[in-house]
Design brief:
heterotrimer; A mainly alpha (about 300); B alpha/beta (about 325); C alpha/beta (about 325); B: about 325 residues; Rossmann fold; eight-stranded mixed sheet; four-stranded antiparallel sheet; globular; C: about 325 residues; alpha/beta; 12 strands
Chain lengths: ~300, ~325, ~325
Amino acid sequence: MVDTTPDGTLALAAPAARRPRGWLPTLRQLPLIPLAILVPFVLVALFAGWIAPYDPTEPIPGASIFEPPCWMPGGSMHAILGTDFQSRDVLSRLIYGARVSLIVGVTGTLAAGSIGTAMGVIAGYLGGWTDQVIMRLTDAWLALPALVFAIFLATVAGPSMWNIVIILGLVYWTRYCRVIRGEVLSLREREFVKLAEIAGASRLRVILRHVVPNVLNSTMVLASLTIGVVIIAEASLSFLGVGVPPPEPAWGSMLSEGRSMLMVGDWWLTIFPGLCIMLVVLATQLLGDWLRIRLDPQLRNL
Amino acid sequence: MSSLLEVAGLAKHFAVNTAPFPRRRIGLVKAVDGVDFTVAAGETLGLIGESGCGKTTTSKLILLQETPTAGTIRYDGADIRTLDRAGLMRYRREVQVVFQDPFSSLSPRMRVGEIIAEPLQIHTRKSRAEQRERVAEVLELVGLPADVARLFPHEFSGGQRQRIAIARALVTDTRLIVLDEAVSALDVSIRAQIMNQLEELQERLGVSYLFIGHDLATVAHISDRIAVMYLGKLVELAESLELCSRPAHPYTQALFTAALPAHPDQPQERVKLTGEVPSALNVPSGCRFHPRCPHATARCAEEAPATKEIAPGHSVACHLY
Amino acid sequence: MPPLLQVSGLQTHYVSFGGERVVKAVDDVSFSLDEGETLGIVGESGCGKTTTCLSIVGLLPAAARIAGGSIEFEGRDLTRLGPREMRHVRGARIAMILQDPMASLNPLFSIYTQVSEPAYYHQRIRGRPLRERVGELLRAVRIPSPAQRMREYPHQMSGGMRQRIVGAIALSGGPRLIIADEPTTNLDVTIQAQYLDLLKELQQETGVAVIFVTHNLGIVARMCERLAVMYAGKIVEAGTVRELFNHPKHPYTKALLGAMPKLGSKEKLFAIPGQPPDLAHLPSGCAFHPRCPEALPRCAGEAPGETRLSATWRARCWLAAQEAKEGDVVPA
């Protein structure tokens, strides 16, 4: 009979489920399909300068316009996936376009996520009038059709890649705000938050140390699920001509440029960029779904 | 023996309103309605009652989570409402709480060491090294090895988490800990561990406890004195052993007979209580217990009984005395 | 007369991580229950008592399966029954009362709908007889003005009343066995006392057998005739309530009894050192030995078998086995 119980046999008794260690089992736990798609795209985007055979904005010397891909009659090896209406290499434009799409996608999502999470946390934690004002603002914002709003802002702000990032951030923050606010509302009632308040912590301290770290999970999941949306938004803007300005290659504008030639049978100008958009968005969605299941302790053990 | 905490005429009424524009008051919930008790240094006061009795609200009032509608709370002689900023910080430093649910009282994304050190960071200017030292000290006080400070809460069981919560409550120079159903969610054997630990800590450090609970045997075991609450009022207050041998108020008697036996052959005379606890929106007139009281008289329905001392240290609010 | 329920060598395992981790939530559990008897199954969190009950009624979660043993109820082995047949048993012959009344009641349906459901499906009562039956049941659980109450909804009732409604639903199909899993944990003390009185009366009136699953020995002392103590998936001691309360043989039983605060006594509580074990990584030999104040050297190496101490009493402990051999068995 011991009073000061020697939890030395603590040995972390009742530890959280012991997950298999070692690099091979860990590898097996990763979502292979999304990563198999995304990692090459990311690498391509990073090393575009080294990989791309040609400058994407300059016509290939000695090539004709609308050359088909190399395996079709009329194509040649110097432009593997063909050329566009300015004799520029489609493959190089795809590679540099990956850079644009991924950068805009990621930073746009970061911008939207930061603004949205911050607003959600403030609204949820402070409550009262602050909450009401922010929520009505969110409601109003959500009522605007996202793409139309983005087009409007883009027209006003003028074409440039960083403008697009800001615009996408401004358009998509509301998705985070609503969800995060809900989480904060329930977090606020949790006892560890009350304990901090009782101990005399300032509101800022409680928000930064207790609230924000616990909503980051949701933010990350939301982010990975909406990054696809942002990429498509950017592609749409570029398609409509108000996105990344030419001659900078973007998948969306490639789609737009190649649209008229689809009727004539020059399919490679649109199919390849379209395929790229589809694959990247699919991969991010799958990744987001995996992340969501992984981060939710209840679903994880199934 | 000077009182550390003195509560007099404490009351908290919650207004129940319709939606705004126009906001009309439909009713008044008298969660706490005139409660007096004291907690001396180094003693444990037990607060017992069933749902709706106001013990949770009382704890919130003491922890400054709600402001009283009436009455005073004196800490070390000073009315806490008149405290200036420094005084308030001191109050928050010296009065801490341990809650019921071990699974939500620790911040899931912070390491245990950081969780325990937080009051130090708020109230003192100790360096990181000094903080670490103090954290190790209190961990040892609650029977946990010092190197658990780098772990996360989810790696611990319920009982261990309560120990961490207690460690956190002790890390500054705490003089009063409010234990709000702190052991109710724990398994029986772990509960015994924690109760023994709490008693030992009280002996070593001289800290006072306000032990709020609903299980009579548990509360009686750890408390020096017990206060029984019903529908916002204090119906009886006595020393623990005195209350167990001579419960005076009919409600207290009912609580005792309703308590589960410790042995199958234990005799069970039953003061059978009829009905349910009435809603705090519609408190009965006169003595609040009279609709369910087996000894109720006409006077009980009209006049609320005053608190009388029937023996040294033993007071009751009942017309029978 | 054959027992109403006979559980023999029950093994229920939880499998997770794609088969990598097998947790023996219930490991070789055997007990029996006669008609009209009250049995208490006592243990702390993680000991396997709830899993045992879920195994009996066939409501195990997806990750669990019965890996061995049998559950004989009214002459049939429940582990061999298909889902459709189990549905005829559940509610009609065996009913369950769970801890949280608000979770057991559907907020969208009236009291009448919910109380009548088992009678409707299992006993095929319809129309006016059904309404009368519901009124009878509500009266049996002492709900005042049943005719009015049956039209109300769960949120309009207090916790104590809701738990009674749950009791009425349990009785509605006319079961011979009710399994009550921590039925009073969420109730106030005086309401709990009323509820337990009610259960006792109902038992006397209908002759239904009850299994109480709880961690509170007080409930067992009040309500049960027999008791089984579980630890880490096994029954470590079982017998009549008097046998175990008066002369507990297993150190864990002794510890549980010693950990209960007794009203009016300031005697120091017996606190078992350490934590309940992680079922995925049980200690060798007797699962309790790391925490056992009376452990013998043998306990670390070999898991004890059951020692029969009397016709009704058995314990799974080397110490008890030793004492039994020395003729130290005290009759209840």
